[in-house]
């Protein structure tokens, strides 16, 4: 896998997340996650997002200018912070 730092210009990164078991009281965090990425989309940072058919996986394509920005996006994801989703792969392109 190519590290994001190999890209000198702003670029896209496809993030793959796996969902862990979510309890009823944790659904608020999922709503926070939806709002978080919607806000990033409104700022031009999210190109596309979706789920894989019949799997506890989803993807988000983000537009970043640096590794630091990518790390901040991932670290500030409410579901990642609360250990409900796990980043399993990041593919820059």
Automatic annotation (TrEMBL):
InterPro entries: Dimeric_a/b-barrel, YCII. It comes from the Bacteria. Residues 19-93 form the YCII-related domain. Pfam families: YCII (PF03795). Belongs to the YciI family. This is Uncharacterized protein YciI.
């Amino acid at each position: 896998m190519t590290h994001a730092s190999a890209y000198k210009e702003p670029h896209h990164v496809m993030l793959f997340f796996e969902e862990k078991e979510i309890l009823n009281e944790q659904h608020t965090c999922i709503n926070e996650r939806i709002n978080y990425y919607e806000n990033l989309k409104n700022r031009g940072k999210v190109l596309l997002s979706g789920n894989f058919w019949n799997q506890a996986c989803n993807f988000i394509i983000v537009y970043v200018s640096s590794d630091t920005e990518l790390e901040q996006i991932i670290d500030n994801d409410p579901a990642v912070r609360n250990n409900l989703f796990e980043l399993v792969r990041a593919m820059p392109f």
